[in-house]
Amino acid sequence: MGTPCQIEVKLQKVEGRKSATMKDRNGSSYKAPVFMDGEDVKGKVFVNLSNKKKLDHMGIRVELVGIIENLFDKTQNSTFLQLVRDLEPPGSLTDNMTYDFAFNRVEKQFESYNGIVVRVRYYLNVVINRNYNKISKEEEFIVQNPGEEPQTN
């Protein structure tokens, strides 16, 4: 049967924003935009219906999540940031939709980190709730908080 829709997340492009390359646990690389503490996280969510069919849902939301993941014991994961914006109340989609979202002045207290035992990551998660399942899409981004350089004597 396949997925009734495709979800795409596009972060707002800011002139001068860097992107960085990270390696996931499998060793493959990916590029993600770099944010700093206090910066707004804005963008658009595109929901494209497959075969233009109607999609009944129990609400659509976007979440901004910061999590410390223990790569060997998932029960030890710790979510330190979770903000939610509702995009659409329960109802039906009959056409492709685009939603704007904004998380303003978000405190991102930890830098992204990818280690052997743990990793710290930030991502946007778009969720379409349905009666019997949910459809979700994650879009990761990187946080770097450069400190001031020490003064030399």
Could you provide a short overview of the structure?
By secondary structure, the chain is mostly beta strands. It has strands at 5-11, 19-23, 29-35, 41-49, 55-57, 60-70, 78-88, 91-93, 97-103, 113-114, 118-129, 134-143.
Topology:
Layout: E1 5-11, E2 19-23, E3 29-35, E4 41-49, E5 55-57, E6 60-70, E7 78-88, E8 91-93, E9 97-103, E10 113-114, E11 118-129, E12 134-143
Parallel strand pairs: 3-12
Antiparallel strand pairs: 1-4, 2-3, 4-9, 5-8, 6-7, 6-11, 10-11, 11-12
What does this structure look like?
With 153 residues, this protein is an all-beta fold. The protein has no helices and 12 strands. Strands 2, 3, 6, 7, 10, 11 and 12 form a 7-stranded mixed beta sheet that branches. It is globular, with a radius of gyration of 18 Å. 14% of the residues are buried.
Question: Quick one: overall form?
Answer: globular
Mean pLDDT: 90
Rg = 18 Å
Q: Tell me the number of strands.
A: 12
Number of helices: 0
Structural class: mainly beta
**What share of the residues does DSSP label as strand, in percent?**
over 45%
Cα separation of the termini: 68 Å
Largest β sheet strand count, sense and barrel closure: 7 strands, mixed
Fraction of helical residues: under 10%
The residue ranges in which pLDDT falls below 50 over 5 or more consecutive positions are none
Order of helices and strands: EEEEEEEEEEEE
